[in-house]
């Protein structure tokens, strides 16, 4: 199979000089500015040597789920976190897995919903979800929610998952950047605002443009496939995190299905 390289638009940081913010709630307090770049992206399905989480920082895994987009949030939270968390625990040999339930994102576009549109604007930015500060906060919050204490651990890592439920071809999908092509200092910390006031915020990072970045996607994802990528790692000798962004799927958009997806994150602890 020939390697398929196409182009699509990516949004990178373009100021301001002061610390920016992105308002996921109403959009009114957003000061983060981005600039669009038309960049090359590779369909990873056409690669003989597919990306691997230990090398590029992400991969495609075959993993069936019993949930559907018609299930309510409580059902998805309970069943899906157990399904995926158990798989991750076995695969990576963690002694404890804590789901990031607050970060469960069910993306199914309503016909008219301004809040949904404001949220989705945030996905169309090349970004990383965590800083050291926000990670410390989220570990404490989620451990308390689950009623567990990780105790002493040698290593902690965040693994993020993304699953498409809309049948292919899809209008929008997830793009992932080879972590090896990202240089130190290539991002800017910004504040993510998730409430109707400024009290509920956390730190995230937006990417600066670099011609060295290598972007990938998988065409025609199915519900039995799941994108798995690194979100954080305390072991600096390993791939630590992967820039990502929702993109318009390369190719002719006519007749493509709207995105329907579920995103989850998990804290894995190792002795």
Structural class: alpha+beta
Instruction: Count the domains.
Output: 1
| Low-confidence sequence ranges | none
- The level of helicity is 10-25%
**What share of the residues does DSSP label as strand, in percent?**
25-35%
Terminal Cα span: 42 Å
Give me the Rg, rounded. Answer: 18 Å
Mean pLDDT: 92
Instruction: Choose one word for the global shape.
Output: globular
The beta-strand count equals 15
Give the topology string: H per helix, E per strand.
EEEEHEEHEHEEEEEEEE
Number of helices: 3
Can you offer a commentary on this structure?
The chain has one domain (4-49, 57-270). The chain starts with a strand and ends with a strand. The chain is α+β, with helices and mostly antiparallel strands and 271 residues long. Strands 4, 5, 6, 8, 13 and 15 form a six-stranded antiparallel sheet that branches. A five-stranded mixed sheet has the order 1-3-12-9-14, with no helix packed on it. A four-stranded mixed sheet has the order 2-10-11-7, covered by helices on one side. It has helices at residues 73-92, 114-123, 132-146, and strands at residues 4-13, 21-23, 34-43, 58-62, 96-99, 105-107, 127-128, 155-164, 172-177, 187-193, 201-207, 215-217, 225-233, 244-248, 261-270.
